[in-house]
Write a structure and sequence with these properties.
about 250 residues, alpha+beta, four-stranded antiparallel beta sheet, 15 strands
């Protein structure tokens, strides 16, 4: 388990977290802070749940509506939690994605907004991660105040673990952006500036000169964007932005 533990220890150092070596019946794990939340990386064993098998799992608290439930699972994958009966089918207007994933949630309007194009792309990238042949399944669940993102199998290489965390935190960022109040997006590239919008780089409220990433629609201070030269969100990296006040792309 030496190389595996070393890979997780390196991730702990990168994120300023705590590495737990595990023991005879437990796997190594990592706990780390991310934007005022604690996150947990752990490795579920199929020995205790043969139906679901081995999983690499990221989890963090869900700081918004605790009554919200969401499940995005590969078609045919067993549901990991008990209140499945209250969930309803969610149409994300992406037939190719929905041919591979079952999306269910409650309330459906919020679930539909959460599973946007960027989240769908990140989830499929998780499925491809460390897959030598066909993509292995990846899944998202929000239930009882927790957000859980999982990937089939135990990731052991440091690059795979780093990419898993990067994509998972990218999904966290997207969900927070969707749930946040303060910016309203219309069709295409147009935006409307409202109140209480915060920059992901400086964490200050954006009073004026707001720009918005063309790819993931994250708002930034213009000065911070110029300093960073690209979007600050994980798994995005877009270099083009929309000037929110002038509604034009740069």
């Amino acid at each position: 388990m030496g190389n595996w533990s070393q890979s997780i220890e390196e991730a702990a150092e990168r994120y300023g977290g705590s590495f737990h070596a595990g023991g005879l019946f437990t796997k190594p794990s990592l706990q780390f802070p991310y934007v005022e939340q604690m996150c947990l990386l752990r490795f579920r064993s199929g020995f205790w749940n043969r139906v679901r098998g081995n999983l690499t799992e990221f989890s963090t608290s869900w700081p918004f509506n605790r009554k919200l439930s969401l499940s995005v699972l590969p078609i045919g994958r067993p549901v990991p939690f008990s209140h499945w009966g209250q969930l309803q089918d969610v149409d994300v207007a992406d037939s190719e994605f929905q041919a591979k994933f079952a999306v269910k949630g409650f309330p459906t309007s919020v679930a539909q907004r959460l599973v946007n194009a960027q989240v769908r792309w990140q989830l499929e990238e998780l499925g491809r991660l460390a897959s030598l042949k066909e993509p292995q399944h990846a899944e998202i669940a929000i239930w009882y105040g927790w957000l859980v993102i999982a990937k089939q199998g135990h990731l052991r290489q440091k690059d795979d673990i780093a990419e898993f965390l990067r994509l998972s935190l990218g999904i966290v960022d997207q969900f927070k952006l969707t749930m946040a109040e303060g910016i309203k997006f219309a069709d295409g590239e147009s935006t409307t500036l409202l109140d209480n919008v915060y920059c992901p780089i400086c964490s200050e409220e954006i009073v004026d000169q707001m720009v918005v990433c063309m790819r993931c629609k994250t708002p930034h201070c213009r000065d911070c964007w110029d300093y960073n030269s690209q979007c600050a969100m994980f798994a995005c990296g877009e270099k083009r932005f929309i000037n929110a006040s002038e509604k034009q792309a740069n």
